[in-house]
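Task card 7
Instruction: Convert sequence to structure tokens.
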Amino acid sequence: MSKSYKIAINMGGGDAPGLNAVLEAVVRSASNRNWEVYGIKNSYEGLLDTNEIIRMTPEKVWHISSIGGTILGTTNKGNPFKMPIANAAGEIELRDVSDRVVDNFKRLRLDCLIAVGGDGSLQIAYDLFKKGIPVIGVPKTIDNDLAATIITFGFDTAVSIATEAIDRLHSTAKSHDRVMVVEVMGRHAGWIALNSGISGSADVILIPEIPFNIDKVCDHIMEGELHGQRYAIVVVAEGAAPAGGQALDKGKGEAGRQDVLLGGVAEYVAREIAKKTAKDTRFLVLGHLQRGGSPTTFDRLLSLRFGAAALRLVEEKKFGTMVALDPPNIKAIPLEEVIGGIKRVSLEGDTMRTAREIGICFGD
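Output:
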């Protein structure tokens, strides 16, 4: 008789369309094996307070794959290896409480943790794996910058939303002869900016992989004026930076903040364009619109495939691995080969070549 597993699943990092689909696939696949699944609320915090762990049944996840966000909740805080805790003086210290997580996991007699998240969350999962927790990783990031998988779920939805926004901006920009600067997500890689920018017929795309020269951006816009195009669309990733400069941190100086809160580059670019070209220039930050809403068909299917594949890896006892898309199949990749590997836009790739050949400027 095959072993009956008790599976735990959590979601870490920013939300992404498709998280609920992963959960639905895990729960329904486990139910068909007569396994139990327990949802850990709010990422790893739920393993510190076991009241935040709930039994998941097929009835609780039935047809949630079309719903955005996650019914379990997620957070990009709460790293058990660096947990902010107030000391006796009321000062915040970062403490390692991972032993408590491991003890709770074992006390609940859980057999495996399915950790859904991006690079940071999977790093935590890998560190817990090294402390004895059997782990299977599921890659998640709308930025599509996680190594070892061709694509991550949430990316297709984010690009679709950004492309629709750019499409809408064409008509209003053209009506007023304006330059519209659109900021999309992308901390370390410009996948969303590149794909939505090309698909939305942008004139300029600025990405983290290419430090941009604002004068070249302005020259390109004014060149369009000479050919009768009196408006322009500029798409910029939040992590893009001017040559010789750094990505803008709008959270800099906030009390207690240790991470970088990117944002503000669209406002900077719009201000510089207006100053250098005298063009009426506006900026728009899409922000969390790219994370919300129902996932696309592609993201739903990929999420369901990832969730079902994670259960197969549990059955095969391939712990310490992550599911990854290697078309046409899903395969297992050791977590140690995934951690810290940022997948950046290839400047020699076909998509970049296409963009340059149709006349899109990258500010270089």
